[in-house]
Design brief:
Chain lengths: ~270, ~400
């Protein structure tokens, strides 16, 4: 059993969390698998509320890859049965609204289909809930207010205060998902519900095709005169422009380095 | 020196040789240019040069040589001005403005906006709050709308969506372009799309008349579709504007932006332990190599500076640093804004790994090594002494800052 690593003071029975999961695709082989970010959403939910986590999938219930989520230690996985190409937002909106949940966790982008990353935004808009993107950690939950850390580029974090209920997307800054075990995956139950089917109009006008490699950007030299172009072509690729401090005392050198670090804003 | 004006055969030779590296720098000053109203303006006094006998000469053959005022800098090229007096439609762009300046992604987006605007349309850039950018004209902004106010400062996506909605009502842009980036644009664009109830085209990397292609799923497939009104474009989606100058005329909103009750409160940035930031995305890396003898001092300096530690292959092989700290071809390719290399001579494998770094600082004993050639600032000296002095300088700086605050 993985250790209960939750340090958050949460009343596990009172808090109700749903993680939304989808079926991913392996980046190289394209075989179905559990989606990386959705697995992180499940992991975060398990760390928050343990066994009370509610995991929901909208789509095909017969997909074997779906059982990989059950292998993370869930007893049950809820499925809203839909054919491929159906719009998941209306069904999910109805389900979430009726479930009386306080927190919904999703990955930030699907690995199959359009993968626009719009689902959490549309769901939040339809429910009228606030949305936190890039959730990295839930620090505390009290009096219907959550303190959360949001992941920013370059490993930085921002603290946000948000009212429950809310929706959150997780990306690769969230905790790494635990391994999926085969036995529990086979023993877990799938609770399938039938829902009304809304057809997504996108693929009638658009077409999916294998990804074309993007052309590498060429370095075009826009010199007007021959001399400019000659200079650009013969110039050394790097260097030459640097400032070299030689024969200075260590103090003066250190001062110059510190000045640059402060100017660049990396030293606070 | 005598006042006798002499011929300068070398200058004349350079003036004749258009391929000479100094040719542009030694060309005579510009004597005519296009004025603001389209009139050609001339400096009549600047024409000609003083000949060897002190008599003014005007060479009308177009091959004027030598003598005239020498300029130190290369010729300043005045790009043609692209004006849109009565825009038929607008293409709105919301740049990320990371650090208050246009990023390269933003410039690509403005380039894409121009290809969509063509002759009749105007590119409208919507900026939130303060900015430090001075080159909107050359980046290709025809109209500039700055939404000022405290409500847009910090992390305020919901209020910004209200701002964009107000812009949408007033200008009704034909297309909205946002960068599909993690630094704000991707999130803002999706929120805006959900608020408008329109389906955006996401992760677009090519737009060709009425058709746009974007990555789908996990990047193994492309989705080609008719161009949507809202486009979230990936980096390098188009070439940036480089051949024209633009007006960047300020415009304003005629109505006030609706205030939305903030449901998400920004409590500010959190101090992150630099050791746990993945090296590939760390902003500030302090890296040590073979020249570092006192590793304890090295670690103390990194802690004092608040930098993520890195190492060259030699330091890792010798067991001073962990394998996951290695920078270079067989380690991590880093993207730091500032990279400090202590005692690293700069093997080509290491220089490949720091190719994406903006500023490189080198501390080294050998003034001829390759790292010094790459570095923007190099200090030649014994690393232990310089690191000790650096710690002292950091402490003095922090104490000074504290005293100023008190």
């Amino acid at each position: 059993m993985p250790p209960e690593s939750t340090s958050v003071s949460v009343d596990k029975n009172a808090l109700h969390v749903i993680s939304l999961v989808s079926i991913g695709a392996h980046p190289t082989s394209g075989r179905p698998r559990r989606a990386e970010q959705d697995a992180r959403a499940v992991e975060l939910g398990l760390q928050l509320v343990g066994d009370n986590l509610h995991v929901l999938h909208a789509g095909n219930a017969d997909e074997p890859a779906l059982r990989a989520y059950l292998g993370m230690g869930l007893e049950e996985l809820h499925v809203l049965e839909q054919p491929a190409g159906a719009d998941a937002v209306p069904a999910l909106t109805d389900y979430v609204r009726e479930s009386g949940v306080q927190m919904v966790l999703t990955g930030s982008q699907a690995e199959t289909g359009e993968g626009s990353g719009m689902l959490p935004f549309l769901l939040a808009e339809a429910l009228g809930w606030p949305l936190v993107t890039g959730l990295a950690e839930v620090e505390s939950l009290s009096n219907g207010v959550a303190l959360v850390l949001q992941a920013l580029p370059r490993g930085q974090r921002r603290r946000l205060k948000v009212r429950l209920p809310f929706l959150a997307t997780v990306d690769n800054a969230a905790p790494k998902p635990r391994q999926s075990a085969y036995g529990p995956a086979q023993r877990g139950m799938l609770a399938v519900e039938d829902v009304e089917i809304a057809v997504d109009e996108l693929l009638t006008a658009a077409s999916l095709q294998p990804a074309r490699p993007r052309p590498k950007r060429l370095k075009v030299i826009k010199g007007k005169s021959g001399a400019d172009r000659m200079k650009a072509a013969t110039a050394k690729a790097s260097g030459g422009g640097g400032q070299v401090l030689k024969g200075l005392s260590p103090e003066a050198g250190a001062e110059a380095i510190l000045k640059l670090l402060v100017e660049e804003g990396v030293f606070k | 020196m005598s006042d006798v004006i002499r011929r300068d055969p070398r200058a004349e030779w350079i003036a004749r040789n258009r391929l000479h590296p100094l040719h542009a720098a030694m060309q005579p000053a510009q004597t005519s240019w296009m004025g603001p109203n389209g009139l050609m303006r001339k400096v009549v006094h600047g024409i000609g040069f003083i000949g060897p006998n002190g008599i003014k000469r005007i060479d009308r053959s177009g091959a004027q040589q030598g003598g005239a005022v020498k300029r130190s800098a290369a010729a300043q090229v005045q790009l043609p001005l692209h004006q849109v007096a009565q825009p038929a439609f607008y293409i709105a762009v919301v740049p990320d403005m990371v650090g208050g300046r246009l990023s390269s992604h933003d410039r690509d987006l403005l380039g894409l906006a121009h290809s969509l605007a063509g002759k009749g349309g105007a590119v409208l850039a919507v900026i939130f709050g303060e900015h430090k950018e001075t080159a909107f004209e050359t980046a290709g902004v025809d109209r500039l709308l700055v939404l000022e106010g405290n409500e847009f400062s910090g992390y305020s996506p919901e209020q910004r969506v209200q701002g964009l909605r107000a812009v949408d009502n007033q200008f009704g842009p034909k297309h909205w372009l946002l960068p599909d980036s993690r630094s704000g644009g991707g999130e803002l664009g999706r929120r805006f799309a959900a608020s408008l109830g329109e389906r955006p085209a996401t992760r677009i990397w090519q737009v060709t008349d009425d058709q746009c292609i974007g990555r789908a799923g996990a990047g193994r497939e492309d989705l080609a579709r008719p161009a949507a009104r809202l486009i979230l474009a990936a980096a390098e989606c188009a070439e940036p504007v480089s051949e024209t100058r633009h007006e960047a005329l300020p415009v304003e909103l005629s109505t006030a932006v609706a205030r939305s009750l903030p449901r998400i409160e920004d409590l500010g940035a959190v101090a992150v332990d630099p050791a746990v930031i993945p090296m590939a995305e760390a902003e500030f890396i302090f890296s040590g190599g073979n020249g570092v003898k006192d590793w304890d001092l090295f670690h103390r300096t990194a802690a004092a500076l608040g930098a993520t530690e890195g190492a060259s292959r030699v330091a890792v092989d010798d067991g001073y640093m962990a394998r996951d700290r290695q920078v270079g071809a067989s380690g991590t390719w880093v993207t730091a804004r500032v990279y400090v290399a202590v005692g690293i001579s700069g093997a080509i494998q290491h220089l490949q790994g720091i190719g994406a770094c903006d500023k490189v600082v080198a501390i080294n004993l050998d003034p001829g090594c390759d790292m010094i050639k790459r570095a923007d600032l190099s200090v030649i000296g014994e690393s232990a002494e310089i690191l000790t002095a650096l710690i002292a300088a950091v402490e003095a700086y922090r104490n000074g800052a504290k005293r100023n605050a008190a």
